[in-house]
Fold:
Amino acid sequence: MLLHLHPVLAVPIWQQLRHLGGVGLILLGLADNSLIPLTGSMDVLTIWLAARHREPWPYYALMATLGAVIGGYITYTLARKGGKETMERKLSKKRTAQVTHAFERWGFATIAIPALLPPPFPFLPSLLAAGAMQYSQKKFLAALVLGRGLRYSILAYLGFHYGRHILRFFSQYYKPALAILIGLAVIGTVLTLIQYLRYKKK
Structure:
């Protein structure tokens, strides 16, 4: 995955995704909404592409949403087949209980609101809970489209209208920004691995 690679390898892959434009957003969305998310990568690419003005900003919002929905649905389906055991393999029992309780109480909002919020708010627990608890596919997709659609529409709009400043920032701080994203992804991977090892010992 992009942000789990060494910086020397991540840069050319990032450049390739940029050149692919909307298709790159779909590919990145598939990875970002998997069991090991790529923290902040979709947000950055959506803003950057919209700032370039090669296509109308709604196009990039749509492609980012499409990639996120497909990726999220795959994770949801895996959790749906695996049940609560799949959720507990990725989360601690305490975290699983918290997410389950929130999902039983709020349902639709437990998916839509985290899908809308930016990092570092975690979204993977909501995907796993929806699948493990056999939540309605139609309601799940509606909540996911609503949350991600609003999020990427806002980001693409901001990228389009404030693109000059954003591109100037990326040109000046490209490597530090990429290094930060890689660092966040590595931290997320380590924490996920620790949780998995703890569960395995129990």
Q: What stands out?
A: DSSP finds ten helices and no strands in the chain. Residues 104 and 133 are 9 Å apart (CA to CA).
